[in-house]
Amino acid sequence: MPAPWRARYCATPWWARVTLIWAASRIVTTALVLLLANVQGPNAWTSASPGYADFANMWDGRWYNIVAVVGYPSTLPFTADGHVGESAWAFMPGYPAIVRLLMVLVGQPWAPMAVLVSVAFSLGAALLFYRLMRRVLDSSTALFSVVLFCVAPLSPLLQFGYAESMYLFLLTLALLLLLQRRYALLFPVITVMALTRPSGLAFALALGLHTVYRAVTRRQDPFPAADRVLAASVTGYSLLAGLAWPAIAWIGTGSITAYTDTELAWRAPYIGYQELIPFTAWFQSGVWWLGMPLGIVAVIVLILLFGAALFLPPVKRLGVDLRLWLASYALYLLAVFFPQSSTFRLLMPMFPLLGALAPPRNTGYRIALVLAGILGQWGWLLLCWGVDGADWTPP
């Protein structure tokens, strides 16, 4: 880089660099989305060749729209054979509430306002992600981590009518506060986060492990009594926050299992209606996709590989707290989630792992990662977002 350009680059504030990266990535992603929208045929959500806002609000975007405009049903819907069916109770109110507020203030319909809210939160998430990575990486590597975040295969969701953009913003803020040990500020963040996407239980586990680790290592890293009380308190609060929405669904419908029954309705097309038995869904999915015994073996190997990956040098460089979050969220998914095409989206909260891919400064390596991310976006849009007939690959 020529000296004048280097000096100008060094004088540019970090937030301007991150914003430029974010803006460039959104241009690329928007071009890909418009290209696919142009060839999209008529479907359950849009007419043929829909405009951007309509195309960005397909699939679960319609459920969030229902929550924002109609709210939640007081009685659960049932299928013809007597099982609880799909309903708005599977979708938490944080994101649609903000979009609804903007709709009222601006006087615009759901679709453009949902996109606007998601885009705004995506910029906030990118800015916070840089600050988070700067806690564990140098500035150049942290900045390239932001590049990877912005061009990741599922980054189109950051500008769709989904809650992921808002949730990643809140999660990044919560992780940053955790690394800064500003426990008191976690209470309001956890409150909103737990009402945006299911997260309270996983974050409570991460907080609990963090508290135990700090207690064990207090000789090397002092853990004052005030911090111990706050850390334990926010851990318990996160646990309660994780149970709040199922409790609200119970109160709203009169059924203690309203939330879990509603969630189970989405896996019924694969394995039928079954009870929620923790730590069985991945094995059920493995058998559904690969049969016996290969499905069981594949899940066991996947668990072992992920556990080993947490101890690889690039991942260890992220620090103990981020690895505790990764382990906690992975355990949460293993306990309750049934893997199918939505798995890619459910893995988005593991975005700190991008920091483990960023350190090598080889130009060819970095260009290859960026191109792989962009190609991955196109592949995910084709596989999971675009609708082709009776599509069974929801995003």
From TrEMBL:
InterPro entries recorded: PIG-V/Gpi18
Cleaved signal peptide residues: none
Residues passing through the membrane, by range: 14-37, 110-130, 142-163, 183-209, 229-251, 287-312, 324-347, 367-387
Gene Ontology terms, MF aspect: alpha-1,6-mannosyltransferase activity; GPI mannosyltransferase activity
Keyword entries, A-Z: Endoplasmic reticulum, Glycosyltransferase, GPI-anchor biosynthesis, Membrane, Transferase, Transmembrane, Transmembrane helix
Membrane topology annotation: Multi-pass membrane protein
GO CC terms of this entry: mannosyltransferase complex; membrane
Pathway where this protein functions: Glycolipid biosynthesis; glycosylphosphatidylinositol-anchor biosynthesis
One annotated GO biological process: GPI anchor biosynthetic process
Main location: endoplasmic reticulum
Protein's cellular compartments: Endoplasmic reticulum membrane
Protein name according to UniProt: Integral membrane protein
Lineage of producing organism: Bacteria, Bacillati, Actinomycetota, Actinomycetes, Micrococcales
